[in-house]
């Protein structure tokens, strides 16, 4: 998958209020992550709703899950997040100019 395609997929996953809230919460939690129950307590969402949204974030490569006993720990894939941000800002302020051709003169 190209960087453009993976970034597009990640941005599409973040384009939902609940998923964006989950992602931002997990960013704040850092490497410790949060269980589905803890995310639900913070956001006031049912576990079944969260499971659907977390699945989308996992499929987009933004969140990783790890089973710990009976619960599933959710963490942001910070390398993937940084890669997405680097791609979005790689050409920041480099200028955009149309090339003049002889026929356009």
Question: Brief description of this entry?
Answer:
The protein has 105 residues and is α+β, with helices and mostly antiparallel strands. 55% of the residues lie in helices and 13% in strands. It comes from Roseovarius ramblicola.
Please supply descriptive tags for the structure shown above.
13% strand, single chain, WH_DNA-bd_sf, 105 residues, DNA-binding, 5 helices, alpha+beta, Arc Repressor Mutant, subunit A
Q: How would the blueprint of this fold be written?
A:
Blueprint: H1 3-14, H2 17-29, E1 34-35, H3 36-43, H4 47-59, E2 63-68, E3 71-76, H5 78-89
Antiparallel strand pairs: 1-3, 2-3
Can you describe what's shown?
The structure is a single chain. The protein has about 100 residues and is of the alpha+beta class. The chain has five helices and three strands, in the order ααβααββα. A three-stranded antiparallel sheet has the order 1-3-2. Strand 2 (about 65-70) and strand 3 form a beta hairpin. Helix 2 (about 15-30) crosses helix 4. The N and C termini lie far apart (about 40 Å).
């Amino acid at each position: 998958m190209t960087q453009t395609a993976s970034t597009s997929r990640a941005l599409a996953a973040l384009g939902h209020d609940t998923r964006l809230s989950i992602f931002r919460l997990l960013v704040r939690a850092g490497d410790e992550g949060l269980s589905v129950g803890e995310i639900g307590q913070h956001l006031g969402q049912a576990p079944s709703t969260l499971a659907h949204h977390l699945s989308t974030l996992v499929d987009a490569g933004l969140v990783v899950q790890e089973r710990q006993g009976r619960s599933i720990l959710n963490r942001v894939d910070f390398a993937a997040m940084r890669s997405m941000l680097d791609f979005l800002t790689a050409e920041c302020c480099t200028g955009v100019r149309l090339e003049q051709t002889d026929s356009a003169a």
